[in-house]
Amino acid sequence: MSVGTVIVTGGAGGVGRALVGRLLDAGKTVVTCDIDEPGLKSLADEHRGRALRTHVADIASHAACDTFMDEVLATHPDVDGLVNNAGLYLGQPVQDYDDATIERVIAVNIKGPVWLSRRFAGHLLPAERRGAIVNLASVAGEVGSSDALYGTVKAGVIGLTKSNAMNFAPYIRVNVVSPGLIVNTAIADRIPAYRYAEYKRQEQLDGDILPEYVADVCAYLLSDESRTLTGALLRADNGSYPR
Q1: Could you report how far apart the first and last alpha carbons of the chain are, in Å?
Q2: Which contacts qualify for 159-167: CB closer than 8 Å, 24 or more apart?
Q3: What does each C-alpha distance from 113 to 58, 96, 243 come to in angstroms?
Q4: Which of 5, 92, 201, 224 suits a disulfide with 29, CB 3.0-4.6 Å?
Q5: For 148-205, how does the pLDDT look when each residue is reduced to its tens digit (9 = 90+)?
Q6: Distance between CA atoms of residues 65 and 116, nearest Å
Q7: Are 180 and 209 in contact (CB under 8 A)?
Q8: What is the pTM of this model?
């Protein structure tokens, strides 16, 4: 892969955890953060002796994002990859949200990636260094969701990707992965049964979408094999919701 040192948010579980392992296997240095301290400890134990650093951080907090990036840039000034993977899905209709929860969902899914991308680009662009950002959206951001707030923020992630691809060109490529129903994740466990069945009914390919499969698409977008892609949306959805 073209990048050598990669930040992965939400690395304690799901796609983030799979991607951390995928990048380490490829010989990359990985710095990851999560609010799940036990999950991070388990991840560190799993990859003991490898080029992995873990940080407990809540990306819904601007101050926490700044502290995290301060530490990363001080210890890994050569960082050239960022994966905005951390997300929050509650699986409830918008009328069930209180204002504080609305603010947190927006902060985790939108504000955090904005803050981190800005700091990342601010480190690379003045030196005209090359790099890559990969954002994680969802089919919910393209076709809607029974959780209207989740559909809204994931549509925002897609818009952020396209805009930052222009903002950070020609040095930093910015692309987005739009997964469908990923099994074996906390999000899948919260999806209402009728929506889960609808996702599966729409899939054109057989077999489940595993975190590892989505991690493969993210790894591709960090590699030189995707050198001509920026502002692109790649779907990892088994062909669901043809669009």
Answers
A1: 30
A2: 160/110, 160/113, 160/114, 160/117, 160/135, 161/133, 161/135, 161/137, 161/231, 161/233, 162/231, 164/117, 164/121, 164/133, 165/230, 165/231, 166/231, 167/121
A3: 12, 25, 26
A4: 5
A5: 999 999 999 999 999 999 999 999 999 999 999 998 887 777 777 887 888 788 899 9
A6: 7
A7: yes
A8: 0.95
